[in-house]
Amino acid sequence: MSDAERPTGASRTALATLLGTTLEWYDFFLYGTAAALVFDKQFFPSLSPAAGTLAAFSTLAVGFVARPLGGLVFGHFGDRLGRRSTLVVSLLLMGIGSTLIGLVPGYGTIGLWAPVLLVVLRIVQGIGLGGEGAGATLLSMEHAPEGRRNLYAGFPQMGTPAGLVLANLVFLATNSLAGHGTFLAWAWRIPFLLSFVLVGVGLVVRLRVTESPSFHQAREHDEVVGFPLADALKAGLPQLGLTLLAVLANSAVAYVFMVFTLSYGTQHRGYDQQFLVLGVTGAAVLWFASIPVWTRIADRRGRRTLFVGGSVAVLVWCAMFFPLLDTGDGAMALLALAGMGLILPVTHCVQGAIIADTFPVRVRYSGTSLILQAGAVLGGGLAPMISSALLGSGNSSAGVTCYLVGICAVSLAGAVALFRTVPETSTEQAVRRPERAGEACTPAP
């Protein structure tokens, strides 16, 4: 590809990865919203409201447990066969899983098999998404023009809030058109069945993108390795551990904000369900719109200062978030949600690029998937369930606030330590030249 052609191809690829990740996150977030508002009644009707919500969030967590498996499998083949083909398969898996969830009979029809099938399909969803996050980030980032690496790596990150907005809007529209009673009875299935159509559109777009130039170069220089995960681990336990700690809080805070807030606000603070869903959706719009701003700042000023400053801001806002919700005032609740929508993307938008630049091209998919999915399980997957358990049968959110502030403090310490242990070098040269065996890349500034 010539220099003149590359920006156009890079932009097309960035938009394609954004669309693909949006559709995958749409499917994944449908489950989270349904777990917060519907699944306790459909699949765990014999339990109390609190126990039913906890059980529904437990099935939500199962998808996160499956994500590392998907990340390892797709990472392996993504480093050996290419990023593009593995992303096509991951999107297909997610679409099949979501469509079939819309067809699973409730507990009243098939008894215990209903939650069992729900869990199995959630695992399919988790495996599909496990291969998406790292692969989409790499495909876009490795097409990026010089000096815009963070911006292009941020396009797939925009798929997270975009998928949340799409899922919530479809849920709200279905609920409004069908009526609440009909929605709880069967119409909640419509958003899941819609996945079949949306994923078909996504596959058409994804099949038209080109393979990563960096992967092509690695293959031309015969750098493809038989077991890329083993080579990825050569980055060393200290650096891998600190990178994992640095990104842990973002996942935990995001899922408390996007999922747990819905059940907490409606069951314990008396907020209207539609009001909260619209509030979270509006905050996700701010999240989506602010990512290009933050990534451009990272390209100009360096991602390290941005990430550490964002980590501090997330910690401070987590200390304020539930106290604002607990006022019971709609304006304060909207302020809490909007603040989260503006602050979360500061760290979220560059974490994919930070992780990716820890690894050389030949093992980058495997290494990035390992860190991303481990962070998703330890952070996001457990967060709604831990928050529900901390809340228990009482109304005090103090335990949840302490949990979020604590995990933010751990991540902040990990980020500071990580950026003190790696040199202020860029990995752009590593992308353009063959890498020696055993050589590892270090995070770019």
UniProtKB/TrEMBL annotation:
Family, similarity comment: Belongs to the major facilitator superfamily. Metabolite:H+ Symporter (MHS) family (TC 2.A.1.6) family.
PANTHER family xref list: SHIKIMATE TRANSPORTER
All residue ranges annotated as the Major facilitator superfamily (MFS) profile domain in the record: 13-426
Mode of membrane association: Multi-pass membrane protein
Name used for this protein in its record: Putative proline/betaine transporter
One GO MF term attached to the UniProt entry: symporter activity
Taxonomic source organism: Streptomyces tubercidicus
Keywords recorded for this protein, A-Z: Cell membrane, Membrane, Symport, Transmembrane, Transmembrane helix, Transport
Transmembrane segments: 54-74, 86-104, 110-130, 151-174, 186-205, 242-263, 275-294, 306-325, 331-350, 370-392, 398-419
Keyword ATP-binding found: no
Function: May be a proton symporter involved in the uptake of osmolytes such as proline and glycine betaine.
Claim: Transcription is one of the keywords in the record: no
Gene: shiA
Record's subcellular location: Cell membrane
Single GO cellular component term: plasma membrane
Cited CDD domains: MFS_ShiA_like
Domain of life: Bacteria
Pfam family membership, one: MFS_1
